[in-house]
Specification:
Elements: H1 3-7, H2 9-12, H3 19-58, E1 61-62, E2 70-71, H4 75-81, H5 84-121, H6 129-135, H7 140-144, H8 153-156
Antiparallel strand pairs: 1-2
């Protein structure tokens, strides 16, 4: 069997297609993954990459957003790093991040423990605590927006 038949059996097994149509079909198939990823790459460039570089550009100017921009170079960064408030804010941000990540991990451990207890007590039921906690239609929106509602597991059990 030829290399073409191994790699692309649908194209190789189409005897009524001309060579130029097979080449076009190969080109279309090769471009499909790039076309599928293109919207995500576009959004990443427009909403993440461009704003980061524009922010870095603007950070080298003194500008009150009304008057003209005055080039300051790296002087703005020198002022920030010499400020004691910067290090206080940086420390608070690091503490906040660590506490948020730790609390999320504790939620996962709590759900795992609840799952084990639920399976041991109600082994005949096929549903699990995690899926009810996350996907229960009565509490999903509250969980999505950060509500503190605690769902009753019996409200979410399917008949």
């Amino acid at each position: 069997m030829s290399e073409i038949a191994k790699a692309e059996p649908a194209i190789a097994m189409a005897p009524n297609l001309s060579a130029s149509k097979k080449t076009t079909l190969r080109a279309v198939r090769a471009s499909v993954p790039y076309l599928m990823v293109a919207p995500a790459v576009f959004q990443l460039l427009v909403f993440v990459i461009y704003p980061i570089f524009y922010m870095l550009y603007l950070s080298t100017f003194e500008w009150n957003m009304i008057g003209p921009k005055v080039f300051a170079g790296l002087n703005n960064f020198v002022l920030i790093f010499n400020s004691s408030d910067f290090y206080t804010v940086l420390g608070n941000t690091i503490k906040f991040t660590i506490l948020n990540v730790a609390s999320d991990k504790l939620k996962v451990v709590g759900l795992a423990i609840a799952e084990v207890i639920y399976i041991r007590l109600f082994a005949s039921r096929t549903s699990c605590v995690y899926s009810h906690y996350i996907y229960c239609h009565k509490y999903y929106i509250l969980k999505l927006v950060g509500g503190t509602a605690t769902p009753n597991i019996n409200d979410c059990l399917r008949p």
